[in-house]
Amino acid sequence: MPSPDCAPLHDALRAQVDQQFLPGVSTALLRGRTVVDRWCYGDADREAQVALRDDHLYRMFSNTKLVTSCAVMQLVEEGLIRLADPVEAYLPELDRLQVLRPGATRIDDTEPTHTSITIEHLMTHTSGLSYGLFDPGSLLFAAYNERRVRNPARPLADMVTALSTLPLSFHPGTAWEYSMATDVLGRLIEVVRGQSFGEVIARRIFAPLGMVDTGFRVPQSERHRLCALYVGADLADPTRPGLSRADDKPYPGAYLEDWPLESGGGGLVSSLDDTIRLVRSLLPDGDTLLRPETIEAMFHNRLPPHLCVRFPNLPRFTHRGFGLGSSVTLAAGPGEPDAIVGEVAWGGLAGTVWWINPRIGIAGVLMTQRWFGFENPFSYVFKREAYRALGF
């Protein structure tokens, strides 16, 4: 195929930096396993005037979930777990959970669950767990934060214990809610493997793929490579230009010290190179991290027709289902290319994005550091122009 014309893509993203929507941005486009475009522009540290290089490090937040999902599917391939298994078979503290009653006004207004949480429920965010991030004013938002469920000073085992004392948002399998389910999967991996979650993914994913820059902490010798984190001028209006420094998010010292919590839902730091390696390992025509049939199962929508991706105070993403760890595009949404159908993707809270379209054999990676950046306009600009550059 002819080389892609990526000039419009570069121009569009350059404008996002120049107009102060992004501090800097690195991208890569793939046809099959071949990287056909790699580009970098802007600053890693605006105040210190450090130009962004393609070896800088990024807080991955929820892009961590792809690593965790792959580690779970390795357990499935080895016959150590099944997707249909109830999670209490491995984490007994999650047995006999309660669910908030419809219309509850107190956190103790509950009823017993109708069914157990399965591993597939956790993989697809249909478990009934919540996050305590996206729904301020709700009972569970208050409870998750009052009890510090996401406490970085406590390990995954303590996090699961804290979750076991709180009710679910809904009966497992009956709704979709983005949640701490992937962190629970990190603890599941620890129990089944008999090692810490960090040790498991380092040995079974990072080492085989040559991912040398990915981990839960940036060594002192590499801290000069960690990009500064910025927040937009108005979290409620991502079209308003302006950036300010926010290195203390999600908490002071994050990624710089050995915190006990190894978050499978959002704790990793990585690089453009390493993310390309992970994405490529899930593409055909070469050695893959998982069996082809496993990857196909991950990339298939597992939600029933009446469920879709949804977030509080936002329109329902009726064109997006969910597979085993990432969204699955069922139809083109507003501003999206028609060829997007079949794409699997996800992003992180600080703006990192990956997507794979196995139907047409292309993939893309975008790395930036803008707090609450996922689903901001720049991610749609990137995707639209990337598909055009790749001929779709």
List the helices and strands and how they pair.
Elements (H helix, E strand, L loop, with lengths): L6 H12 L5 E8 L2 E12 L4 E2 L5 E3 L4 H14 L20 E3 L9 E3 L6 H6 L14 H8 L9 H9 L16 H13 L3 H13 L20 E3 L10 E3 L23 E3 H9 L11 H7 L21 E3 L4 E3 L14 E4 L5 E5 L4 E6 L2 E2 L5 H13 L3
Parallel strand pairs: 7-15
Antiparallel strand pairs: 1-2, 1-14, 2-3, 4-9, 5-6, 7-8, 10-11, 11-12, 12-13, 13-14
Describe what this molecule looks like in 3D.
By secondary structure, the chain is an alpha+beta fold. The chain has a domain at 7-66 and 211-289 and 339-389: 3-Layer(aba) Sandwich (Beta-lactamase), CATH 3.40.710.10. Helices cover 27% and strands 16% of the residues. The protein is built from 10 helices and 15 strands. It has an 8-stranded antiparallel beta sheet with strand order 3-2-1-14-13-12-11-10, sandwiched between helices. A hairpin with a 4-residue loop joins strand 10 and strand 11 (327-329). The protein is globular. The two termini are 13 Å apart. The mean pLDDT is 96.
Q: Helix proportion of residues, in percent?
A: 25-40%
The secondary-structure element order is HEEEEHEEHHHHHEEEHHEEEEEEH
Note the gap between the termini: 13 Å
Give me the side-by-side strand order of the main sheet.
3-2-1-14-13-12-11-10
